[in-house]
Specification:
Blueprint (H helix, E strand, L loop, with lengths): L3 H10 L9 H18 L4 H14 L5 H9 L1 H19 L1 H10 L3 H8 L3 H11 L5 H39 L6
Helix pairs in contact: 2-3, 7-8
Length: 178
């Protein structure tokens, strides 16, 4: 049976190019790219994480056995399930419905029902409620987006009409008959 160091050396010998000296730099660069992709929300978190793992596997930062060991661990599956569940709660409106229902109760009764202190309820309300001044700004932005979408649709229709007219007049032009 080989030691972990022997498996490590054998894995790195089988790669088509030698990056052993650059491994720490590659790992840091990949980690930085993954964090930037998360921060900029270029894709969904699961896609970014999967792509990061595939790149790490492709350039030899992790062995296939290490990657399979991570996938076999229940922790990543649990985290993935939490992502799916939270997205489902937001998209179906369940989260909003529950928060609306909880707003109907007085703070003292709500604290008793949830088994927490009233101070916790007030702290949560302060942390997670949107200030009133943000709401008109959001409404104004939504109106602006709707207006821009209508304008874009109108401009596209005008463009299509102009393209058809140009093609028609190009066929009917005396210069095209020559």
């Amino acid at each position: 049976m080989q030691s972990a160091g022997g498996q490590f050396q054998e894995f790195y010998k089988s790669r088509p190019f030698d990056v052993v000296g650059f491994t720490p730099y590659l790992a840091m660069a990949l980690l930085a790219l993954v964090f930037v992709a998360f921060a900029l929300e270029l894709r969904s978190p699961d896609v970014i994480a999967f792509c990061g793992a595939v790149v790490a596997l492709a350039i030899g930062l992790v062995s296939p056995n290490d990657l399979l060991g991570v996938i076999a661990n229940p922790a990543p599956a649990t985290i993935g399930a939490m992502f799916v569940l939270s997205a489902a709660l937001v998209r179906t409106g369940v989260l909003e419905a529950v928060s609306d229902m909880l707003r109907r109760y007085p703070v003292r009764e709500l604290a008793e029902r949830l088994g927490v202190s009233t101070n916790s309820i007030y702290t949560w309300q302060k942390q997670f409620s949107r200030p009133a001044k943000v709401i008109p700004e959001v409404d104004a932005q939504a109106d602006e987006i709707r207006r821009l979408k209508r304008d874009l649709l109108r401009v596209r229709e005008e463009r299509d009409i102009l393209e058809k007219a140009t093609a028609y007049f190009a066929r009917e032009s005396p210069l095209s008959r020559m």
